[in-house]
Write a structure and sequence with these properties.
The structure is a single chain. 70% of the residues lie in helices and 2% in strands. By secondary structure, the chain is mainly alpha-helical. The protein has 2 domains: 147 residues, no CATH class; 138 residues. Strands 1-2 form a two-stranded antiparallel sheet. The protein is flat and about 60 Å long. The N and C termini lie far apart (61 Å).
Length: 321
């Protein structure tokens, strides 16, 4: 009897509130791992553990001889397990949620599997002695996991009905173009980093691009993104889409803050602390961009099915007075 009760308690459905909290925690944790990964690079600790999956050829953990760099790199690897546990908890919560919502499961699985995949890419960066292109891919893999975690969080809060557009098709297309440019800004940003002084370690190779030239390309793409965001604000206001307008305003504000950090760090010779803030800002730009994309449509609740009728009721003829 005790065993049956214990199983029933374990199988109790997870509430929607708990599921939303776990999905939000997953977003925060994945943003956090990006910031701590930046700390590894900015402290020149990218090769603090010179191999992978071990920290050294003889040890899975950092040793005292490896100093602070080893502690920082090994600590970041351990945080990956914490992020993975949060993703696993979120996946189990999706499975235990009632009624079962099939649209959530692929997203939860993507986030969960994205953690070890991102860790493998991180291991490849170490094994390739911090090849700048692989380092950039490591960052972009984290961005992909954050995007999946955000999609899961938004879908948890929505009903399961069909998607309904809340702005005209041309504005939805403009929002998609803005999303594409935002992703391009992130990609080009990794090229800028790979050409500069914070590629992961003092001895790490650079990608060979001219830092000044690629920084100008990055700045031009940012200006394009700013222009598109301003256009979205006016376009959404013109059609009375208040929620979409608010999302576009937030996106513009985040972009302006991120752009300010970028300009300051460029003209102050790229101090490490501002590079770290810029990495956090990149995550916020991605999340704000996705928020705009989600604001262009909504899901309506599923219409209740009409009550079933018996054959006798179907054949009944209304009686008039």
């Amino acid at each position: 009897m005790r065993r049956i009760c214990a199983v029933n308690r374990f199988a109790r459905p997870v509430s929607g509130t708990l599921l939303r909290s776990l999905a939000l925690t997953s977003i925060i944790a994945n943003v956090g791992i990006v910031v701590t990964g930046g700390a590894v690079r900015l402290t020149a600790s990218g090769l603090g553990c010179p191999t992978w999956p071990r920290c050294t050829d003889a040890s899975y953990v950092a040793t005292s001889e490896m100093g602070l760099h080893g502690v920082i790199e090994f600590g970041n690897r351990m945080l990956t397990f914490a992020v993975g546990l949060i993703a696993l908890a979120t996946l189990l919560a999706v499975l235990a949620h009632r009624p079962r919502r099939p649209g959530l499961l692929p997203l939860a699985v993507a986030v969960f599997l994205g953690i070890p995949a991102q860790a493998v890419v991180g291991g490849i960066t170490v094994l390739t002695n911090l090849n700048p292109w692989v380092v950039g891919l490591h960052f972009l893999a984290s961005m992909a996991v954050i995007a999946a975690a955000y999609a899961l969080w938004r879908q948890v809060a929505e009903p399961d009905g069909p998607k309904v557009a809340v702005v005209p098709a041309p504005l939805r297309a403009l929002a998609r173009v803005t999303t594409g440019v935002s992703v391009a800004v992130l990609v080009i940003g990794t090229w800028v980093t790979g050409s500069g002084p914070h590629a992961g370690d003092q001895g790490a190779a650079r990608n060979g691009l001219d830092p000044e030239s690629i920084s100008q390309v990055h700045a031009d793409s940012v200006f394009l993104l700013l222009g598109l965001s301003v256009a979205l604000i006016f376009a959404f206001r013109a059609v009375g889409a208040r929620r979409a307008t608010r999302a576009a305003v937030v996106l513009l504000a985040v972009e302006l803050g991120q752009g300010l950090i970028g300009f300051v760090q460029y003209f102050t010779h790229v101090p490490a602390v501002l590079v770290g803030a810029h990495m956090l800002g990149s995550c916020l730009v991605l999340l704000a961009t996705l928020s705009v994309q989600w604001s262009t449509r909504e899901r309506r609740p599923v219409a209740p099915a009409p009550p079933a009728t018996t054959p006798a009721e179907a054949e009944a003829v209304p009686v008039t007075a």
